[in-house]
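S1.2 Input.
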Amino acid sequence: MEVLGIWIAAFLTLCIFSFLYRDNPFYRFAEHLFIGLSVGYSIVVTIHQGFIPLAWEPLSEGVNALQSELTSEGTPETKEALSGLFKIIPIGIGLLFFARLSPRHTWLIRYPIAILIGFTAGAAIPNVLQASIFEQTYGTLTPFAAMHAGSLSTGDIVGAILITIGLICTLVYFFFSVEHQGPVGWLSKVGIAFLMIGFGAAFGNTVMGRVALLIHRVGFLINDWLGSIF
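S1.3 Output.
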Protein backbone atom coordinates (compact mmCIF):
# COMPACT_ATOMS: atom_id res chain seq x y z
CA MET A 1 0.00 0.00 0.00
CA GLU A 2 2.88 2.35 0.78
CA VAL A 3 4.43 1.69 -2.63
CA LEU A 4 1.09 2.48 -4.31
CA GLY A 5 0.95 5.82 -2.47
CA ILE A 6 4.48 6.64 -3.61
CA TRP A 7 3.56 5.91 -7.24
CA ILE A 8 0.42 8.04 -7.05
CA ALA A 9 2.38 10.93 -5.51
CA ALA A 10 5.10 10.60 -8.16
CA PHE A 11 2.52 10.55 -10.96
CA LEU A 12 0.81 13.69 -9.65
CA THR A 13 4.18 15.41 -9.17
CA LEU A 14 5.17 14.67 -12.77
CA CYS A 15 1.75 15.90 -13.92
CA ILE A 16 2.39 19.25 -12.22
CA PHE A 17 5.93 19.46 -13.60
CA SER A 18 4.58 18.80 -17.10
CA PHE A 19 3.36 22.41 -17.13
CA LEU A 20 7.00 23.41 -17.63
CA TYR A 21 6.58 22.16 -21.20
CA ARG A 22 3.12 23.59 -21.84
CA ASP A 23 -0.45 23.38 -20.62
CA ASN A 24 -1.74 19.84 -21.06
CA PRO A 25 -4.49 17.48 -19.83
CA PHE A 26 -2.21 15.86 -17.24
CA TYR A 27 -1.50 19.18 -15.56
CA ARG A 28 -5.19 20.17 -15.62
CA PHE A 29 -6.13 16.81 -14.10
CA ALA A 30 -3.70 17.25 -11.20
CA GLU A 31 -4.74 20.88 -10.73
CA HIS A 32 -8.46 20.08 -10.65
CA LEU A 33 -7.85 17.11 -8.35
CA PHE A 34 -5.90 19.30 -5.91
CA ILE A 35 -8.56 22.02 -5.90
CA GLY A 36 -11.36 19.48 -5.50
CA LEU A 37 -9.64 17.73 -2.60
CA SER A 38 -8.86 21.07 -0.92
CA VAL A 39 -12.45 22.27 -1.19
CA GLY A 40 -13.84 18.92 -0.04
CA TYR A 41 -11.50 18.80 2.94
CA SER A 42 -12.38 22.40 3.86
CA ILE A 43 -16.10 21.62 3.71
CA VAL A 44 -15.73 18.56 5.96
CA VAL A 45 -13.58 20.48 8.48
CA THR A 46 -16.07 23.37 8.48
CA ILE A 47 -18.97 21.00 9.15
CA HIS A 48 -17.24 19.08 11.95
CA GLN A 49 -15.48 22.02 13.62
CA GLY A 50 -17.95 24.80 12.87
CA PHE A 51 -21.50 23.81 12.01
CA ILE A 52 -21.96 20.81 14.32
CA PRO A 53 -20.44 22.18 17.58
CA LEU A 54 -21.45 25.83 17.08
CA ALA A 55 -24.87 25.52 15.44
CA TRP A 56 -26.39 22.04 15.36
CA GLU A 57 -25.62 20.92 18.91
CA PRO A 58 -26.68 24.19 20.64
CA LEU A 59 -29.91 24.26 18.62
CA SER A 60 -30.65 20.62 19.40
CA GLU A 61 -30.04 21.18 23.10
CA GLY A 62 -32.21 24.30 23.00
CA VAL A 63 -35.09 22.50 21.29
CA ASN A 64 -34.89 19.61 23.77
CA ALA A 65 -34.80 22.07 26.67
CA LEU A 66 -37.82 23.91 25.26
CA GLN A 67 -39.75 20.66 25.06
CA SER A 68 -38.83 19.83 28.67
CA GLU A 69 -39.87 23.30 29.76
CA LEU A 70 -43.23 23.00 28.02
CA THR A 71 -43.89 19.66 29.71
CA SER A 72 -43.06 21.19 33.13
CA GLU A 73 -39.96 19.04 33.46
CA GLY A 74 -37.55 21.93 33.28
CA THR A 75 -34.43 22.04 35.39
CA PRO A 76 -31.71 24.72 35.74
CA GLU A 77 -29.74 22.78 33.13
CA THR A 78 -32.59 22.89 30.64
CA LYS A 79 -33.07 26.60 31.23
CA GLU A 80 -29.40 27.13 30.52
CA ALA A 81 -29.69 25.05 27.36
CA LEU A 82 -32.51 27.32 26.19
CA SER A 83 -29.87 29.94 25.46
CA GLY A 84 -28.82 27.76 22.53
CA LEU A 85 -31.98 28.86 20.73
CA PHE A 86 -30.47 32.32 20.36
CA LYS A 87 -27.94 30.76 17.98
CA ILE A 88 -30.73 30.81 15.39
CA ILE A 89 -30.09 34.55 14.92
CA PRO A 90 -26.48 34.29 13.63
CA ILE A 91 -27.42 31.11 11.75
CA GLY A 92 -30.23 32.98 9.98
CA ILE A 93 -27.86 35.84 9.13
CA GLY A 94 -25.36 33.34 7.71
CA LEU A 95 -28.05 31.66 5.62
CA LEU A 96 -28.66 34.99 3.92
CA PHE A 97 -25.43 34.36 1.98
CA PHE A 98 -27.35 31.78 -0.02
CA ALA A 99 -29.73 34.51 -1.20
CA ARG A 100 -27.15 35.08 -3.93
CA LEU A 101 -28.56 31.97 -5.62
CA SER A 102 -31.94 33.67 -6.12
CA PRO A 103 -31.99 36.65 -8.53
CA ARG A 104 -35.07 38.07 -6.77
CA HIS A 105 -33.49 37.96 -3.32
CA THR A 106 -29.88 38.79 -4.12
CA TRP A 107 -30.16 42.10 -2.26
CA LEU A 108 -30.44 40.25 1.06
CA ILE A 109 -26.78 39.28 0.86
CA ARG A 110 -25.85 42.89 1.66
CA TYR A 111 -26.74 42.42 5.32
CA PRO A 112 -24.42 39.49 6.18
CA ILE A 113 -21.63 41.05 4.10
CA ALA A 114 -22.02 44.37 5.94
CA ILE A 115 -21.99 42.61 9.33
CA LEU A 116 -18.98 40.48 8.35
CA ILE A 117 -16.97 43.43 7.04
CA GLY A 118 -17.85 45.60 10.04
CA PHE A 119 -16.94 42.89 12.54
CA THR A 120 -13.72 42.00 10.70
CA ALA A 121 -12.65 45.63 10.40
CA GLY A 122 -13.42 46.34 14.04
CA ALA A 123 -11.40 43.32 15.15
CA ALA A 124 -8.53 43.76 12.69
CA ILE A 125 -7.84 47.52 12.86
CA PRO A 126 -6.62 47.53 16.50
CA ASN A 127 -4.44 44.48 15.82
CA VAL A 128 -2.97 46.06 12.69
CA LEU A 129 -2.25 49.29 14.54
CA GLN A 130 -0.60 47.36 17.35
CA ALA A 131 1.50 45.11 15.09
CA SER A 132 2.30 47.41 12.18
CA ILE A 133 2.60 50.83 13.83
CA PHE A 134 3.06 50.71 17.60
CA GLU A 135 5.35 47.68 17.68
CA GLN A 136 7.36 48.95 14.69
CA THR A 137 7.75 52.37 16.31
CA TYR A 138 8.80 50.73 19.57
CA GLY A 139 11.30 48.53 17.74
CA THR A 140 12.79 51.56 15.97
CA LEU A 141 13.20 53.65 19.14
CA THR A 142 14.32 50.89 21.52
CA PRO A 143 17.90 50.63 20.14
CA PHE A 144 18.47 54.33 20.83
CA ALA A 145 17.55 53.82 24.48
CA ALA A 146 20.03 50.96 24.65
CA MET A 147 22.56 53.13 22.79
CA HIS A 148 22.17 55.82 25.42
CA ALA A 149 22.81 53.20 28.10
CA GLY A 150 25.95 52.10 26.26
CA SER A 151 24.86 48.48 25.86
CA LEU A 152 24.99 48.30 22.05
CA SER A 153 27.87 47.21 19.87
CA THR A 154 29.10 49.25 16.93
CA GLY A 155 27.28 47.02 14.45
CA ASP A 156 23.98 47.39 16.34
CA ILE A 157 24.41 51.17 16.42
CA VAL A 158 25.01 51.30 12.64
CA GLY A 159 21.98 49.07 12.08
CA ALA A 160 19.74 51.25 14.24
CA ILE A 161 20.87 54.38 12.38
CA LEU A 162 20.26 52.74 8.99
CA ILE A 163 16.78 51.64 10.05
CA THR A 164 15.93 55.16 11.16
CA ILE A 165 17.27 56.69 7.94
CA GLY A 166 15.35 54.16 5.86
CA LEU A 167 12.15 54.80 7.81
CA ILE A 168 12.35 58.59 7.43
CA CYS A 169 13.31 58.49 3.74
CA THR A 170 10.60 55.96 2.91
CA LEU A 171 7.96 58.07 4.64
CA VAL A 172 9.21 61.14 2.74
CA TYR A 173 8.78 59.25 -0.55
CA PHE A 174 5.10 58.66 0.25
CA PHE A 175 4.58 62.27 1.35
CA PHE A 176 3.01 63.80 -1.76
CA SER A 177 1.86 67.10 -0.28
CA VAL A 178 5.28 68.61 -1.10
CA GLU A 179 6.90 68.52 -4.52
CA HIS A 180 9.84 66.11 -4.58
CA GLN A 181 12.58 68.59 -5.38
CA GLY A 182 15.72 69.64 -3.58
CA PRO A 183 16.33 67.95 -0.20
CA VAL A 184 12.90 66.28 -0.30
CA GLY A 185 13.70 64.82 -3.71
CA TRP A 186 17.03 63.41 -2.50
CA LEU A 187 15.41 61.90 0.59
CA SER A 188 12.66 60.32 -1.53
CA LYS A 189 15.30 58.78 -3.83
CA VAL A 190 17.01 57.26 -0.82
CA GLY A 191 13.59 55.98 0.26
CA ILE A 192 13.16 54.34 -3.18
CA ALA A 193 16.50 52.58 -2.71
CA PHE A 194 15.39 51.20 0.66
CA LEU A 195 12.08 50.10 -0.85
CA MET A 196 13.86 48.29 -3.67
CA ILE A 197 16.11 46.55 -1.15
CA GLY A 198 13.09 45.49 0.87
CA PHE A 199 11.17 44.26 -2.18
CA GLY A 200 14.25 42.43 -3.42
CA ALA A 201 14.71 40.68 -0.07
CA ALA A 202 11.03 39.68 0.01
CA PHE A 203 11.20 38.38 -3.57
CA GLY A 204 14.42 36.51 -2.82
CA ASN A 205 12.79 34.90 0.20
CA THR A 206 9.85 33.83 -1.97
CA VAL A 207 12.17 32.36 -4.60
CA MET A 208 14.09 30.49 -1.90
CA GLY A 209 10.82 29.00 -0.63
CA ARG A 210 9.84 27.85 -4.13
CA VAL A 211 13.29 26.40 -4.76
CA ALA A 212 13.08 24.54 -1.45
CA LEU A 213 9.76 23.02 -2.58
CA LEU A 214 11.35 22.03 -5.91
CA ILE A 215 14.30 20.41 -4.15
CA HIS A 216 11.93 18.51 -1.87
CA ARG A 217 9.86 17.13 -4.74
CA VAL A 218 12.92 16.24 -6.83
CA GLY A 219 14.39 14.52 -3.79
CA PHE A 220 11.15 12.58 -3.39
CA LEU A 221 11.23 11.47 -7.04
CA ILE A 222 14.89 10.39 -6.86
CA ASN A 223 15.02 8.83 -3.40
CA ASP A 224 11.52 7.48 -2.79
CA TRP A 225 10.05 6.84 -6.23
CA LEU A 226 13.12 5.71 -8.15
CA GLY A 227 14.39 4.06 -4.98
CA SER A 228 11.26 1.88 -4.89
CA ILE A 229 11.95 0.82 -8.50
CA PHE A 230 15.63 0.04 -8.23
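S1.4 Remarks. Residues 180 and 188 are 7 Å apart (CA to CA).
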